[in-house]
């Protein structure tokens, strides 16, 4: 059987970094191409899984009443057409499971779609823009991967907790886990580089100060592994309850198309896994029956490396 190190080494060309935890201990940590353990990276859609965790914490703390609260109830200033029953029916649960109705142009996996996020960053009011799109030509209850809805979850966190997602995470998630506590970086502009690219630091925000819900978070590989370990440990960290166990269980139970509450669910090397995945090859993969967490950036071939590591344990 190959060693973990030899499996990692075989992917060196396209691998930027990897941290492997087994039974709560680091069994492998490697960096390539000038990367190091203190370097933070924009983990793209991994942000979504962090927002999901924050929603669970907010519900447990009483800030949000339930998953079945209607989204428009949190934005009373937005005057939707009373006859637009589809828009009025959308719930937090639908945003978490990617089953909220959005038009095909917002569906990033649709062959005829046009990338909507570049249009979104040009808006003065992101929340209103997304609410206007919600329900327009979409189908309620059908899985449709769409980043826009997750930004509404972040705005709901701001409305209910009085803190943006970054602040709430610092207090209730990042701090307790010993992760980097993120300061409030001022946005130089809403240019591509500030919102998506090399100028992005900490956790990017929209013009109203809401942390971006679908992307925009930066993490080190060690912090990615810590976050995965929290979910592998069913919400416990060093004996302290950070996330309700029931929320972890619900988040990692399929709700449609191998998807939970903003977590991807799949079988890897014959074992059930749940993963936070981000564009650019970022992944936090947890394999419960192996007591294994793998945090990495690999372009391409993430699943292949993960399978190889699983087979070594």
Structural account:
The chain has 313 residues and is α+β, with helices and mostly antiparallel strands. It has 2 domains: 1-39 and 220-313, DD-peptidase/beta-lactamase superfamily (Beta-lactamase); 49-218, DD-peptidase/beta-lactamase superfamily (Beta-lactamase). 33% of the residues lie in helices and 16% in strands.
Please outline the helices and strands:
Blueprint: H1 4-9, E1 15-22, E2 25-31, E3 41-42, H2 46-60, H3 85-89, H4 92-96, H5 117-120, H6 126-133, H7 148-161, H8 165-177, H9 192-195, E4 218-219, H10 221-232, E5 236-237, E6 240-241, H11 245-251, E7 264-268, E8 271-278, E9 282-287, E10 292-298, H12 302-312
Antiparallel strand pairs: 1-2, 1-10, 3-4, 5-6, 7-8, 8-9, 9-10
The domain tally reads: 2
CATH topology of the largest domain: Beta-lactamase
- Under CATH, the homologous superfamily of the largest domain reads DD-peptidase/beta-lactamase superfamily
How far is it from the N-terminal to the C-terminal residue, by CA?
10 Å
- Tell me, rounded to a whole number, the average pLDDT: 93
> What is the share of helical residues?
25-40%
Proportion of β residues? Answer: 15-25%
CATH architecture of the largest domain: 3-Layer(aba) Sandwich
Strand order of the largest sheet: 2-1-10-9-8-7
Structural class of the helices, strands and pairings?
alpha+beta
The secondary-structure element order is: HEEEHHHHHHHHEHEEHEEEEH
Helix tally equals 12
CATH top level assignment of the largest domain: Alpha Beta
The gross shape turns out to be: globular
Instruction: Provide the gyration radius in Å.
Output: 19 Å
Number of strands: 10
> Stretches where pLDDT falls below 50 for ≥5 residues?
110-115
């Amino acid at each position: 059987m190959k060693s973990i190190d030899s499996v990692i080494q075989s992917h060196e060309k396209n691998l930027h970094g990897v941290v492997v935890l087994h039974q709560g201990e680091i069994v492998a940590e490697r960096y390539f191409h000038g990367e190091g353990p203190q370097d933070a990276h924009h983990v793209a859609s991994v942000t979504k899984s962090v927002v999901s965790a924050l929603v669970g914490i907010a519900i447990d703390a009483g800030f949000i009443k339930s998953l079945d609260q209607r989204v428009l109830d949190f934005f009373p200033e937005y005057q939707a057409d009373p006859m637009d029953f589809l828009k009025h029916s959308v719930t937090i649960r639908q945003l978490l499971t990617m089953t909220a109705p959005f038009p095909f142009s917002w569906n990033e996996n649709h062959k005829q779609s046009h990338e909507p996020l570049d249009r979104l960053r040009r808006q003065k009011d992101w929340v209103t823009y997304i609410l206007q799109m919600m329900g327009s030509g979409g189908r309620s209850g059908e899985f449709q991967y769409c980043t826009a809805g997750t930004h509404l979850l972040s705005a709901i966190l701001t409305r209910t907790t009085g803190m943006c997602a970054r602040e709430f995470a610092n207090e209730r998630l990042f701090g307790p886990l010993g992760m980097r506590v993120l300061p409030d970086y001022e946005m130089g502009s809403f240019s591509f580089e500030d919102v998506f690219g090399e100028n992005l630091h900490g956790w990017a925000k929209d013009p109203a100060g809401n942390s971006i819900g679908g992307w925009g978070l930066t993490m080190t590989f060690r912090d990615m592994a810590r976050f995965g370990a929290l979910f592998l440990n069913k919400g416990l960290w060093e004996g302290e309850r950070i996330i309700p166990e029931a929320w972890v269980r619900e988040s990692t139970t399929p709700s449609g198309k191998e998807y939970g509450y903003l977590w991807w669910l799949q079988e890897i090397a014959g074992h059930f896994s749940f993963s936070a995945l981000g564009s650019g090859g970022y992944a936090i993969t947890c394999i419960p029956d192996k007591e294994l967490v793998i945090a990495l950036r690999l372009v391409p071939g993430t699943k292949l490396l993960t399978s190889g590591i699983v087979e070594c344990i």
